[in-house]
Amino acid sequence: MSNKTVIRVCMGPAGIAAGGKGVLDAFSKSLADSGLSAELKENCSSHQVGCLGLCAKDVLVEIDEGGRKTSYQYIKPDMVERIVIEHLAGGAPVKEWLVDEAFDKFYGKQFKIVLSDVGRVDPEDIDSYIAAGGYEPTREVLMTWIPDDVIDEIKTSGIRGRGGAGFPTGLKWELARRSKGPRKYIICNADEGDPGAFMDRAVIEGNPHSVIEGMLIGAFAIGSNKGYVYIRAEYPLAVERLKLAIKQAYERRFLGDDIFNTGFSFDIEIKLGAGAFVCGEETALIASIEGQRGMPRPKPPFPVNKGLWESPTVINNVETLANIPYIIRKGSNWYSSFGTERSKGTKVFALTGKIKNQGLIEVPMGIPLRDIIYEIGGGIESGKALKAVQTGGPSGGCIPAGMLDLSVDYESLAKAGSIVGSGGMIVLDEDNCMVNMAKYFVNFTQAESCGKCVPCRVGTKRLLEILTRITNGEGREGDIEKLERLSKGVKSASLCGLGQTAPNPILSNIRYFREEFEAHVRDKKCPAKVCKALLTYSILDAYCKGCGACMKACPAGAISGEKKKPHRINPDKCVRCGACFDVCKFKSVARE
Amino acid sequence: MNERLDNIINNIREKGGNIIVLLQETQEAFGYIPKEAVKYFSEELNIAPSRLYGVATFYAQFRLKPVGKNKVTACCGTACHVRGAEKIISGIKKELDLPPGEDTTKDGKFTLEEVACLGTCSFAPVVLVNGAVHGKTSAESVVRKIRSIKEKSGE
After folding, report:
1. What kind and span of H or E run contains A346?
2. How many Cα atoms occupy the beta-carbon half-sphere of B56 within 13 Å?
3. What is the mean pLDDT of chain A?
4. What are the two backbone dihedrals, phi and then psi, of residue A446, each rounded to the nearest 5 degrees?
């Protein structure tokens, strides 16, 4: 296939949002009715692929001419014809649409294992995955290994759960293998619930077979014949691609009875999650698969001993499972050569927020945060100053700008008061208020609290109330200390991971940005100018031209003045919406 | 309606399923979980209505009220939040004049859905209007879009 030209069109979530479907259709059409020679036409195929990574520059198109790759950015359907005529037929790439240097920098510091085939294989075609070496690891394991070999290999690789908690995967499998029971289950947790995170979805949409393979190998290791993928119903494309992949795997007899004539049987069923963040907790997820309210129960017994329908059950995250075939293929020593002493391999992050190159990245564990932000991410957009990097979503915390040399691994992030989490990485600049951020996350966890245990149900509610009054300018002396005390209580007394981690964003933000909390409580000021109730607007006479734009924009009728003379804002009528500030061309509206 | 509910029950009996699947199929068929459906299931399947409601109200996916003719989905994910999703949502609410605590307009023309994360964070803030993605959007732009739908439907 070396002479074949392949056109890859990014059809990840962002690619589709940017119009990837239209671009793909335009390629099919343009190839069909272009004056290309018959030979070239046959050799030229356009594929939809999963996320190519640099979502901010979607739609990305990669043209692979027998290994020689050219990438285009910001492609729209009406640009396709010119690419076909000038590049494919004429051999001269359309220079002005090629990716810029940010693209090379974006990939320079990354190392892809889980994502190595995402964007390469066609997620809707099993042959494309097989051609890339897929299902070979499963064949080798099933035909020549014994389960203990698999467990040893995974243990040696050092991989830890990528869903957030970081429990060693090999050990989990070993515990389940040792556990007695007539039936065992393996569950793939694809109920990605962190806001601002889309790694698992990208893996399933981009390379669903790697997840199926991971489940097959895991099932063989623990002695299970039945697996479930618990996936959000809100991910329609991922569900569709996964269903198709499972169907194709059955057709090739990679799933079902007597796989590779080894006597080993394995079935996979999809269970659609109905949207509940608490189902990230293993025991809650199990209750949900059983059709109940997704409420956690105390541990022990742990799911590896008593899980789904009281049987030993292993629950692994999507990214963890997608790593497995690559570990088997290249060996545990190769895998453990990446990363730090205790955090091995790579981690996928969804890099978003106030950063130039937003998208999906995979980096070796232990990479300095600075490299992610300034090399891969290309720095902060619009020249503002970096304030902090939020990791781990509602269960995590923030890393302030002053700690950019921190190594990104389980231990270092935990020491800094945050977590690796499932992989959301949100960059905040000076315009983001840390009190508001804490409130945002607690608002989320409070709404998602299942209500079973009091510390979480009532505790998060009280935390939210205190944060709300602080951001409303009604903060009281002692509120910060109260937040700290209550946070510690909720952490230590809650039943499950949701409550135990819910106060993390508060504690972390107070730890690094205490003065910002104090400004809210004592001075009734929001230094980042986010909290509406703490802002006052006034017009600076020296700059005001009296154009009347602000008067028109004001929804409250709080602005008055004669034409060409400085206007006035009546503070009693002002609703602090900021419309005047946004609309003024002369920067004459002051916001404090 | 009973006939459609019977179909759902038979379907579940054939394929095997549980309360969540039952409710998912009901919502697929009706767009929400009608009160009558809960009553019917509870009698036919001998499951207490409280258990059905318990599951239906636990998960974000299920709605107990019909959805409006047009759906505006605002992403409240972290990336959207740091880029001003709050302002957009309050702008939409104002435009639609939603009664407090309700997500659908009185005339049943619009529903505002606030979701945790749409996963298109690089286009934050994101709002879907009837399924079409509006990325890097603003309150003004979404309100304009809503107004044009209102005009088209002849108000």
Report:
1. strand A346-353
2. 21
3. 92
4. -60, -40
Could you report the per-residue pLDDT of B81-99, keeping only the tens digit for each?
Answer: 999 999 999 999 999 999 8
Output the 3-class SS for A275-321: CCHHHHCHHHHHHHHCCCCCCCCCCCCCCCCCCHHHCCEEEEEHHHH
Please give the pLDDT value at position A111: 94
Which residues of B make CB contacts under 8 Å with A?
Answer: 17-21, 23-24, 54-55, 58-62, 76-79, 81-83, 115-124, 126, 133, 135
Helices A454-471 and A434-448 pack at an angle, to 10 degrees, of 150
CATH of segment(s) B70-152: 3.40.30.10
Distance CA(B20)–CA(B59), nearest Å, equals 9
Mean pLDDT of A287-305: 95
Written as one letter, the residue type at B111 is T
SS3 category, A379: coil
Establish if A450 touches chain B: CB-CB under 8 angstroms.
yes
Quickly state the pLDDT bin for A35 (edges 50, 70, 90).
low
Burial of B117 (0-12, 13-18, 19+ CB in 10 A): buried
Choose between A140 and B17: higher pLDDT: A140
Q: What is the pLDDT of residues B97-139, one digit of tens each?
A: 998 889 999 999 999 999 888 878 888 899 999 988 898 999 9
- pTM for the whole structure: 0.91
Task: Give the pLDDT confidence of B136-153 residue by residue, as tens digits.
Answer: 999 999 999 999 999 987
Give contacts of B79 with chain A, Cβ < 8 Å: 196, 352-353, 358, 426
Closest by CA position to A352, among listed A311, A381, A332, A326 = A381
- Domain boundaries defined on chain B: 2-58, 70-152
Burial of A360 (0-12, 13-18, 19+ CB in 10 A): buried
Quick one: what percent of chain A has pLDDT higher than 90? 75
What letter represents residue A84's amino acid? Answer: V
**Tens of pLDDT, residues A395-427:** 999 999 999 999 999 999 999 999 999 899 999
How big is the CA angle at A54 (ends A50 and A56), to the nearest 5 degrees? 115
Question: What is the structure's pLDDT at A3?
Answer: 59
Say whether A196 and B76 touch across the interface (CB within 8 A). no
Q: Phi, psi at residue A252, to the nearest 5°? A: -85, 5
DSSP letters, A151-180, are HHHHHHHT-B-TTTT--BHHHHHHHHHHS-
Sketch out chain A's domains with CATH numbers.
5-99 (3.40.30.10), 126-336 (3.40.50.11540), 346-429 (3.10.20.600), 434-521 (1.20.1440.230), 536-591 (3.30.70.20)
Phi, psi of A79 (to 5 degrees): -90, -15
Spatial contact of A535 and A575, defined as CB atoms under 8 Å apart: no
Among the listed residues A390, A387, A196, the one whose alpha carbon sits nearest the alpha carbon of residue B126? A196
**Residue spans of beta strands (DSSP E) within A172-290:** 185-190, 226-232, 256-259, 264-273
Chain A residues with CB under 8 Å of B116 CB are: 193, 195, 275, 277, 444
Complex confidence, ipTM: 0.91
